[in-house]
Every structure is written in C-alpha cells, then in structure tokens.
Design a protein that fits this description.
single chain, mainly alpha
C-alpha cells in the first residue's frame, strides 16, 4: 500500500500510504502520509541568499547534474530495468492502497457514525510515525534500502490481511482498525525515508528528474482510479456480500502488495553507498540541524504543516457523501478522487511551462488558493460544485508541492537524503493527520461544512503570516 508518503505524501489510509506521492504534497493525503515523486531528491547544490550555505563533508559531495539533463526523453527513466520494475510494481500497489484508504474511512464511519472517530484514525497513524520518523531516516541512510523496503512492505501486507480477515469474518471493530493503522504508521516511519533514498540508486543522475515526474504521474493516476473503483466495489459487493463489500477491497490491497515486493526482489542495482553512516542520535540530529538552520527549508515545512493542519478535511468525506450530498459510497469514491483529478491537470500544465520564476511567491499563492477552494467546498452543498472545489484543492496543492520539492532538491546534499525526508515526513504527515482530529472535533461541535470552511480560512491566515514573517520564502527564486 502506498503512504503520500514517500513519494510526499498520507498505509491503509491514503495519508499514511507507503507507495504514494512525494512527501511534500500537502493534501490530506490523505495523508499522510503522504508526501509527487516517490522521493525528495537532491540533485543540485544551491544555497539561497537568505539561508546559510551548506557546509561540512556532506556539502562537498553534491554535484550538479550534467548540462541538458532535464531535456532527456520523456520516459527516459523507464529505459532502466530496475526503475521500470519498481515503477510498475509501485503503480499496482498504489492502486490497492488508494482503494483501501476509501474502505478504511467508510468502515470507520459505518461502525461509529461519529466524525471524531474519523479524526482519531489520523491520530492513531501519526503518533507512532512521528515517534519513529527520525530514527527511520537514520536507518535508511545506514542499511540496504532495498532489503529494508521488502521487510516493511511484507509487514504492511500483513496489516491489510488482518483487516481483510476480520472484516470478512464479521469480527472487525473500530479498535481493530485503529490498532492496524497505528502499526502502519510506525512502519511508514522506516518505509518512507528508504523509498525516498532508493530512487536515485535506480537511475543515473541525468534521468532522476524524469523518474520523479513518472512517480508523480503513477501516484496521481492511482489516486483518481483507486477511490472510484473502491466506491463501485464497496457499493456493488454490498448487494452480494452485505457489509463484507469492504473486505473485498482489503483483499485486493493484499494482492497488490505482491507486485511491489516482487519488483524489489528482482532489482539488481546496488542500493546503498559504501560509506554507511552510523545509526546514532547524532546522525538524526544532523538532519534536524540542516533543516532548521536553513530558513527556506524550515519556512516551507512550517507552511506545509500548518496549512495541511487547517485544510485536512478529506477524512470527513463519508459524512459529506452520506448526510450532506446524499451520494452514497459511489459518490464518496468520486469525491475522494476529485483532488487527484485536479492534480493531474495541474501537473500537466506546470510541466509544460518549463522554468517557473519566483518559486517562493508561487508556493504562497498556491497554498492560499488551496484554502480558498476548501471554503467554497464547505459553503456550497452541491455535488458538482463539491467535485470542482475538491479538484481545485488538488490542483493548487500540486503547484505548491512541485515548487517546494524543487526548492528542497536545490538545497539538500545527497548524504542527508534519508534524514531530510524523515524530518519532512513529520511536517507532511503530522499536519494533515493531526488536522483530521481537529476537523473531527469542529465537525462534531459545529458541522462538517463548517469544519471545511474554518479550515480553509485558517489556511489562508497561515499563508498570510508566513508571507509577512518569512522574507526568505517570499523572495525565493532559484
């Protein structure tokens, strides 16, 4: 199953998917987490004027990619056997994970009919992930990443198998779901940094950007197709199997894991540098120091955290589908797929523009647009307007994600890849998943529409504060 998260990215539920978008994505990835390409890749040295230059041994090894590398064939990364295997297996697994994310949210609401319990789903995911994330980044920089991923994927397969078995036998409870997503959150803390650091080992440096864009494409396609299929299967299977229709989706997710595990087993490339780093607290703190001493890195991560904290309303979609828009599980699938549909359109447009200037301002405006789209979604109780507004959240978030990832690619040395990803994962996953708890509380106290409205307004306020206080972000241009 995917998680936004190592691609960006939000496990069984999208926000904590382990085969998903780059970790920089801000949408609720669901997640997380979610957090775009499967990697926060680091391809060029660059220290913006507003931030300190990279120093120390890590900086000395960062080299620029060959001139003209970005102009390679559109599918250049797929020319390489190992990446082609990994990309194909990940695409299948992502489809299963996106379907499973719909099943989890639908099942929790059907079991409890309580928006707060939907919010707790995110909390049970994010706590173990945050607790282990820094250690996971250190391990990803020290051990063989391919073998590490095979182990984490096998564990995640077992968690989906538990959900499938308990659902189909009728012994499922909301606490079973919470226990499973907690395990998935802990595993994601090790899985996502390893995935982020693996991709550059599968393709040459000049094809790395293409590998990232292909990863974004597969994740977005899975995010559109997966939820729609899940809604159809849950609704259709329910007529034949009763409530066990959700269990069918979990079974499909279990099978989908075998694709990425098989691909990882067949990869032949050396996936770990020879100069392995020690697994220690000092190594973890090195990644933290790098992020927080650079105002560009810390500013964009803080913006990501607080914007997704206030704008995390995707976990409330079962309430909108059932009680507000009255569209059932089929409509729920389309609602959950709409942000990714908007993201696909946005990604195509952005990729056709070439070099984008004033990336810092683009990040700020796109995050503000993300908040505005949530306000519109909450204000207008119409299914078609809801689809357009959700597509707007995905489109705006993709623009922001691409710009943030570009900035991080230009500021992170290779030796800190796993640890930078683990720090970023705390922001990328912590924001939306804690935000889902906040959204659940607001939905219970006020209503689900007001949770979306107040959350969107909160995103806009946070964006204004960052634009005012952090000149480095506001004026950044590579």
């Amino acid at each position: 199953m995917p998680c936004p998260v190592a691609f960006a990215g939000c496990g069984t539920i999208t926000f904590m998917s382990t085969e998903t978008a780059p970790i920089t994505t801000g949408a609720t990835p669901r997640p997380a987490a979610l957090d775009p390409a499967a990697v926060e890749t680091d391809t060029e040295p660059h220290a913006p004027a507003a931030g300190p230059p990279v120093s120390g041994p890590a900086a000395s090894t960062v080299t620029a990619p060959p001139a003209g590398a970005a102009r390679g064939p559109r599918l250049a990364a797929l020319q390489h056997r190992d990446y082609r295997l990994y990309w194909s297996g990940s695409l299948v697994s992502q489809l299963g994970s996106q379907m499973s994310s719909v099943a989890v949210s639908w099942q929790v609401y059907q079991l409890t009919h309580d928006p707060l319990m939907l919010g707790l789903t995110g909390l049970f995911t994010v706590v173990p992930m945050v607790l282990f994330s820094l250690y996971g980044g250190v391990v990803a920089d020290a051990l063989d990443r391919r073998r590490m991923l095979i182990v984490t994927q096998l564990i995640l397969l077992c968690t989906s198998l538990i959900l499938a078995a308990t659902t189909l036998t009728g012994v499922i409870s909301v606490w079973t779901v919470f226990g499973v997503v907690a395990i998935q959150g802990g595993v994601a803390a090790f899985n996502n940094p390893a995935r982020s650091a693996l991709i550059p080992n599968l393709v040459p440096r000049e094809h790395l950007t293409n590998a990232i864009s292909l990863g974004v494409t597969s994740w977005q396609v899975a995010s559109v197709v997966g939820p729609s299929l899940a809604g159809i299967i849950i609704g259709g299977a329910a007529h034949l199997l009763g409530s066990s229709g959700v269990g069918v989706v979990y079974v499909i997710d279990v099978v989908s894991y075998t694709a990425v595990i098989g691909a990882l087993a067949l990869i032949r490339a050396a996936t770990q540098p020879l100069d392995r780093r020690p697994i220690s607290l000092g190594s973890a703190l090195e990644g933290l120091r790098f992020v927080f001493r650079n105002p560009i890195m810390s500013g964009t991560m803080l913006l990501d955290f607080f914007a997704t904290f206030f704008g995390a309303s995707m976990l409330l979609m079962p309430i909108f589908a059932t009680d507000i828009l009255h569209v059932g599980p089929q409509g729920l699938g389309f609602l959950l797929a709409a942000p990714s549909a908007g993201a696909v359109v946005s990604a195509v447009i952005v990729s056709s523009l070439g070099h984008v200037r004033r990336q810092g301002k683009v990040v700020l405006w796109s995050v503000a647009a993300y908040g505005l789209a949530w306000v519109v979604f909450g204000l207008v109780p119409n299914f078609w307007v809801a689809l357009l507004a959700l597509a707007g959240t995905g489109a705006a978030d993709t623009v922001s994600m691409v710009m943030r990832q570009t900035i991080r690619q230009l500021t992170t040395p290779d030796e800190l890849r796993g640890r930078m990803t683990s720090v970023n994962m705390i922001f990328f996953m912590g924001g939306p998943q804690l935000g889902e708890l906040e959204g659940g509380i607001v939905a219970r106290v006020l209503s689900a529409p007001w949770a979306a409205i107040t959350g969107g307004l909160g995103v806009m306020v946070v964006t204004g504060l960052v634009a005012w206080k952090n000149r480095a972000v506001r004026t950044y241009e590579a």
